[in-house]
Write a structure and sequence with these properties.
The complex is a heterodimer of chains A (128) and B (716).
Chain A lengths: L19 H5 L7 H14 L6 H14 L2 H8 L23 H14 L16
Chain B lengths: L1 H25 L3 H14 L4 H13 L3 H14 L6 H13 L11 H14 L19 H10 L6 H10 L3 H17 L3 H13 L5 H20 L3 H10 L7 H20 L3 H14 L3 H13 L3 H13 L13 H17 L3 H13 L5 H13 L3 H14 L4 H11 L7 H10 L4 H16 L6 H14 L4 H13 L3 H14 L4 H14 L3 H11 L6 H13 L4 H21 L10 H14 L4 H14 L5 H12 L4 H18 L2 H15 L2 H13 L7 H6 L2 H7 L2
The chains are: A mainly alpha (128), B mainly alpha (716).
Amino acid sequence: MNSSKTSSHRDTPSQTLVDPYAVLGIDRRAGNEEVRRAYFELAKQHSPETDPERFQAIRAAYDALRTDEGRARAGLFLLQPPAPLPTRRRPSYDLDVHPSDLVRFALESELATLSLRDDFREPSLTDE
Amino acid sequence: MLAKTADARQTADRIVAEAFFRAGCQAAEPAERLEYLDLALQAWPDEVRFRFHRAIALWQTDRLDEAATELAIVAAAEPERPKAAFLLALARLALTDTPAAGTADLSPTEAATLDLIGQLLQGEAPDPDGAIKSPAGGSGVWPALALMITDSSAAPVADLGRAIRTVGGRGPRKIVEYYHGVAAMRAGDRSTADQAWHRAWQAGFRTGWVARNWQSLIRETAADLAEAGQWRKVAALHERTPHPVTDPGLAELLAIASDHIGYAAAKKGSWHQAADHWMRARDLAPTRQRIQNLALAAEQEDDWITAAESWREMVRRRPRKPDHPDYLTDSQVAGIWTHAASCYDNVQESGEAVTCLKTALKYAETDVDLRLKLVEALLDNEQEEAAENELDRVLKADANNLEALILLGTLRLGQWGDVRPLWRHALTIAPHDVRVRDGLAMAHLEHLSRAKFLSRKKIESELRAALEELPDHPDVLIRAAELRRIQGRGNEARDLLLRALAAAPTDVRAIGTIMHDMLHVAPGDEGLALMEEIRRIPKMLPPFWIDQGRRALQCAMEREWVIRLFDEAIDLARRQGASGERRGGKQDTPAATLIHVFDAIHNAQGDSDLLDHYAEIIGREVPDSGAVQYIEAHRARFFDEDVDLAKRLLKEAVRKASRAGEPGVEDAASEELHMLTLSPETSDLLRRMMELFPDGPPDPRELENLPDEFFEDLFS
């Protein structure tokens, strides 16, 4: 495992898995209006005075999603759900007998009766 | 003699050739066999049997043309060789589709086989009376295949199933297995087809149509399981699938299965498992989403290199057409490259971080913050000139960018030329920013450090300018005081030092310099008054006063002051010990403080009377702390030059200190013991470095500013 020093001037990658959509309780297809509505609703329930930590999370989520560009950027660092199943296509099969397989079968049949050891020779030390 | 030598060489070659031939015969793969046979022929080019077997290996590696050529040579050279003529005829038939001429050397079975194959190749129904007596045995194979050729719906499943059991040899059997599967598929029996094709593949029958058919069949099975949501069973099909997976539909289904399993693992926090599955999915059917997930999983595992590479792969694979649903805007692309740079930054791969940030800037040229990130990365990668160029670029676009001014000012400190205008500009923007004030102060001090090149008048005006701009910066005030002292204007120097203390009442570094300089300027009551004031600063520690004593000793100040300063350290340790105060988990006990005083005197080459003075206090006040043994070890090492005795005493010091609960003494004794295990040269070098830099490792810039003579002396 590599060390996890994080420069204070750069992104902190380990924080990117917080899903702002989940924090605001909205779908990932939500637009500006829906984001705004969700934020104000939640901010009423979890104000900075009564629940400062939760409010901070809600505010951060809202800041990330309040613009089209922000949502586009946020989407890059969220876990993507599995792709949907593609439309099922009926497979086609090649059920012909291939000519080369006939030849190959004949070859392999011949080779099956061939003993390689029959062709081993003991080299002689004198020229015969 | 020569003839005998030639004979011996020839015999040796033949032995080598035979060895290669036999090794080739044991090779399982035809390609490997071919290599051995080539070597055999190199050693014994005229040996026909090698050519015969080479022809077979060529054929089995789909090099039929070359095989036919070799067989022709063999048939001409050894017409009596069994099967040579048949194989040659078969090869020619395969190449030309026409029956071979000159089959007189063939047996009736061989001739009949060729006739049958010739007919089948022409698409003709075979002669029913000429039931082929193929040496392959299992005479059911040829009729079954013939039937399948002449009738595209014929499905002789049972015949071929029986034939498998009777066909001799793995080679022909795998082909029969395959066509058994074809027949089963014609009959709609997917299960039999699946097993048959699996066996054919395992046996090594791997033509394109075998792979395609079997993958299509697995895809159907995978689709059934996927529709039922049985992802693990779908994923398990990957083990049976021919590799590489060339069926895109199958690859996608297997990848989706891995997506699901990985996603479920990620939701449970099992990132390692999730990454494994997503990696499999990525390898099967790479998409931006899969690579993104892989990158995120790698980050969770702190595998920053994999994460960075995945982010880069993701952005490389992005669609370029703006109307594509996965199209990424320039801003998003820049964001990903910046993120990848952060990943590299986590493992100090500053070169790669620079590359990523430069690429990000191509998509966000006007992003000043991004350019400043690049500057940081360039500095991390020791590319200072490039960093300066980028900062110049930032300031061209935005002359009041404070961060850029600070970075550039810092970079240019120490360079030739006057960097103060830059800092002055920053000060107009942020007059209370500590970084700016410190930077301008340093710039002034650097300028004044070149004072020997300036006239007295110039020095005065520079000093005045510095004090006007930064009237309450402690470093400027201290330096001004030093100059006044050198000029013999002690009262002014004293006032400046008191102003410096007022400006930085808790800056221990500055206070240390102020205290020391005050002793040079006004060692009498003023010095005492200052000590009293410093005593009131909370959380001052004994090492502060030890350092003061050391500096006083090095400057050959009055002995009275040296002792006063060291005693202040010891008194503070006594008071703190009584109140139970601690620093960083360790206690600066009187015992520890005393041995540090002892060390400071020794390192500053203080006289032996002073050493004896504190040795006597140690013996009297802390006899069981290990400190006594520590200083005795010191004497053994430096006066008696008895290293072994010194080591023994230090070990005893460690033991006693541990028993007495004196971690400061224990650590010091352990360190000294370690030094004694080093070579004398290394030990001496370390000790001299520690004397020069008592506060710890020096700033590299400090080292750069030291003259060459220093290093010559150090290493002499």
